[in-house]
Every structure is written in C-alpha cells, then in structure tokens.
Amino acid sequence: MNQNSTPGSTRLPVNVLMRYGVGQTGTQIFRDTPAALLPVFMTTILGIPAWLAGIAILIPKLWVIICDPLIGAWSDRTAGTNGRTPFLVTGALLTSLGFYFLFSVSGFESEIATAALVSMIFLLSMTAFSAFSVPYLGIAALLSTDTHERTRVFVYRMIFATLGVLLGIGVAQPTVFWFGGGYDGWHAMGLIFGLICMVSMMGSALGLRPVLARVPVPKEAPPPLREQFLITMRNRPFRILLSIHMIQTVGQACSYTVVAMVFIYLAGNVSLLLPFVIIMSLTGLCVQPLWMRLSRTMGKLPLFMWLCIGWCVITLTWVAIDYGAQMTVSLPLIGTVSVKELLILLRGGLIGMTNVGFILLITSLFTDSIYLGEEKGHVSMEGSYAGIWSASEKLAFALGPLIAGVILSFFGFESSRGGIIEQSDSAMFGVLMIYSVVPLTFFLLSFLLIPSLTKALRHANKPASA
Fold this sequence. Notes:
Blueprint: H1 14-21, H2 23-44, H3 50-78, H4 85-102, H5 111-143, H6 147-178, H7 182-207, H8 209-212, H9 225-234, H10 236-257, H11 259-266, H12 273-298, H13 300-316, E1 328-331, E2 335-338, H14 339-370, H15 382-410, H16 425-435, H17 437-446, H18 450-460
Antiparallel strand pairs: 1-2
Helix pairs in contact: 1-6, 1-7, 2-4, 2-5, 2-6, 2-7, 2-10, 3-5, 3-15, 4-5, 4-7, 5-15, 6-7, 6-12, 6-14, 10-14, 10-15, 10-17, 10-18, 11-16, 12-13, 12-14, 13-14, 13-17, 15-16
C-alpha cells in the first residue's frame, strides 16, 4: 500500500461508506453513554461514593490498555486466513449484552460489593468492545490508499457517530425519566440502547464482509507482538499524534463524566439536554463537508489546530453559565426562554461544529500516520496501530472519570441511593470546573506538542497533513 495515491484514485461507493459508518452509532453509544451516565447511575441509584465509582470504572479501562493492542495484533495475524469479520461479529454481540447488564445491576448492602460487580461487568463488556472497535478502526485504513478519500470515509463515520452522540447522550438520560426514573428507568434504558448497539454494530460486521473479502492479502505475516509495538513507536508522527489525542481525550472524558450533572444542577433543567445535543449533532453534521473541503486547501493539521482553539474558547464560556438567568426572550415556535438557556443551546451548536471537525481530522491523520511506519504493502499492521490508538482513548476515558470523581469528592459532592439530591454550592462549583476549566487545561497542554508534530510530518516528506 502506498498512501501517495493521486486524487484520481478509485472513489469508494456510497454503499461501502454506509456499511462502514453504521457501526459507529453503536460504538459511539457504548463509548459515550457509560462515560456520561454510569457515574450518575452508580452515585444516585446504587449509592456508591464518587471516588469509589471512579475506581470501579478505572479498573476495566486499565485492562483494555493491554487488551486492545493484543486484539489488534491478533486480528492482523488472522486477517489473511479468517479475516476480521469473526472479531466484529463476536464483539458486536457481547458488547450489546454487556451494555444491558451494566445498567441492570441492583445494589447490595455493601457499597464495595456493588462497585465490584459493576466493575466486573464493565471489564467483560470492554473486552468484547475491544474485539469490535479495534479491527473496526483498522479497517478504515484498508478501504482506500488515498489520504483525502480516507477523510471522506471518516466523514460518513462521523455522520453515524453524530447519531450515536444524539442517542447516547441526548436521549439516554431522558429515556430514564420517560420510564419512571429510578432503577426501572435505568434498566429500561439499558435494554433499549443495548438493542440499538446490537443492530448498528452487527450491521457493519456483516455488511463489510464482502468488502473485506476483496482486500488484498499482505505478502508477509506481521512480525511478533513486541516488534510490532517497536515499529509503531519508531513512527514519530504517529507517536506524537497519539500523545496529542490522548491528552485531549482525557480532558473531554472529564467533561463527559459530569455532562448530566451540568444540566441537572447548573442549567437547572435536565430536559434541556436533549435539544442541546440535537443542536450540537445537527450543526456538526452540516459542517462536515466544509471541513473536508478546507482540509484539502488549508491542510489537515492547520485546520485541526484552529478548530481546537475554537473549541477551547467556547468551553471557557461555561464559567459564565448563569449569565442571563433573569432575562427572557420570545422566540417563534418556542415561546419565552431565558437568555441563559438560549446561550446554552448556542454553545451546543458551536461545540458541535468544532468538536466534530477536530475529531474528524485527527482520526484521518491517524490513518495517514500508519503509512509512515509499516512496510508498505508487505505486512499488515493496521490492527496493531488501531489497537494502540484505541487503548490510548480508553485509558483517557478511564482517567477522566477518576479525575472527575476525585474533584467531585474534594468539592463535597454527595452520593445517594434515592436519586437526585440537593448539592452544596461548593459541589456545583466542582461540577462547573470539571466541565470547563479542566478540559481546557488539557487541550492547552496538548498544544505544546503541535510544533513537534509539524516538524515530524515535514521530515517524513509525506502528504499526511495535506
């Protein structure tokens, strides 16, 4: 494989892009919904203290740091014989079941025992998720040898990711209330969204089977696992890009942990979460063609940087979330709303535009970086690269809830077994910091690596940032 394909390279059919993209809806739900809602379920329904909930979530995600690279290397070794479909099918089935059981746990008298059970179910679910998500990510690098066509692949992937965000964050929490709240509401949500994951992920697993059958078999078997890891780490653009993505994802994972709490306690209206996510999703969906076109003219990396800066500016404005609470405006079809609520929805649109853009670009840059390290066309290491990339994301989503849980406990956030309770001003300030200042800080740290990445890409003399 050579990534130096011309713009005239074979254009992927839309049906192939759809078959690949549809799996991202279920993948996004499993990634986002537990990250955003499992801490809420554990602290408000199961009575688990915030710090203990953070540890219970951390342990399974630490495991997948090992599991993901192993799955990636395993899928590379079997790609020439059994293909990657068995991984996708098995992972889709068990991930969906795991999601259901995760929100079906009932509390024991011992908070530690309850946390241990949730942690065990999450560990098994995350293992199954690795079996699907790692080969699924690696497949994107196989669908086309053209750098811009791979960006197009991720545009379709982001369309279905947007649907996953809309459902997993915007609809999942209200679904709990629609089914009466409490344990029964959480159980119903787990069943419904587990089925959605099943349909979405299995759709990709089976739909891509004929497509993958036409992918050329590598000339050589991949090297041993240790050598594969060394090859990826010698790939300097990949290594720096991985570090940037890891740091930024930790910051985002912190904010995901408290997003429901922001609307419950700070916005004062949990029903606002659904229109917020709808606006965020729709604006993100609409601007993707623009980001794809601009990436061809500006370059992927410069556009990525500008979008990150825009996201940071918007994130900082959350510290003024109460601005306009006493002012109202009248809108057609909606009626009277407070300026505070209007600004929250406006932030949703701006976040959607910037967030979808920099995620699209960094993932496309990831597939570009693969071609800077492997023996082109001779060995298949897409799974190994995807395993390391996926492991870094999952580590970030493990550290995020842990950091958020510690901060919440420090500011006096109180757990309960009977649902939502009133929190102190200090606890609500902690929620605000986790949603605004903490992720902003992580992004600013990641910017320190941008000059090194620019230099590494230039030195590689490849059009990876074109």
